[in-house]
Amino acid sequence: MDRNHSKSIWDRDFDLEDPTPEDAWARAKEKLAAIRSGSVHAKPAGLFVGRIVGGLFCLLVAGVILTGIGALLTDRDESTKIIAILLGIPAILMLIPAYRLLTGSRANTPWRALNLYYRSLGGGKYSQARKLVAPNDFDHFPRFFPDVPKVKGFPARDPSQFREPLDYRDYWRQLIRWPTAPYCIARVQGLKVQEVAPDIVHCEYTLSISVNTSLWTLLIFVPPGLIFALIVDAITRTNIKTPMSKNLVRVENEWILLNGAWLEDDDRIPDWI
């Protein structure tokens, strides 16, 4: 069965009235029960190739620099050895992002799953983000545009429904990628994980998002160049920090989100489980 078209009792058109918290909890219970019973085939998202490529690139650059340093250290000139040691510092530091990229390329912990999800959305990789959401979350249940301070986007449709990939894309694009030629840096901070059952955890954390247009990079061609571009970007950037919570379900050796929206009633508490 297509992971984006799983059948549900909610798989029908809704009117524009707000669903009650009880509706959200009933739907969440049904989704979880379907995943547990196997009637909905949820599968791990698998490796995120982009992060692996980035990690290997960092390792390659560090390896090339360290190889050159090894050659310099054979020189008897003391000043050459000092230069080699100084060059070795950034090479060694590059091993840190390499490690983080490679170990964070799979959603095998709740923290990695959440970071992969928001980073995928921030990078506009919506099909990649969908892999980290329970397949039976993509139905006709109404999702209202959240009231988030500083968000400047305007919903294409309110409420939205995640049945179609374009609706899911538009929902998140208006939330975190609204400028022209946008970039979005998303981070999960202060994560607290509560195990509700062996296969589900409730996560509370702070979502930190920085949004701006990448067009400011064109200012590098205007004196004084890069510094001017960085200053303008910092001044005009929109920074959002908000408390969040999500329920994650274990699928084999990985974790996926039970709800792919911003923050819904079933996300707030795990008591319905």
Describe the structure concisely:
The protein is α+β, with helices and mostly antiparallel strands. The chain is built from nine helices and four strands.
Entry keywords:
18% strand, 4-stranded antiparallel sheet, 273 residues, globular, Nuclear Transport Factor 2, Chain: A, disordered N terminus, 4 strands
In the CATH hierarchy, what is the architecture of the domain at 21-48 and 106-268 at level 2? Answer: Roll
Termini gap: 25 Å
Order of helices and strands: HHHHHHHEEHEEH
Assess the beta-strand content as a share of residues: 15-25%
- Based on CA atoms alone, the radius of gyration comes out at 22 Å
Helix/strand-derived class? alpha+beta
The residue ranges in which pLDDT falls below 50 over 5 or more consecutive positions are 1-5
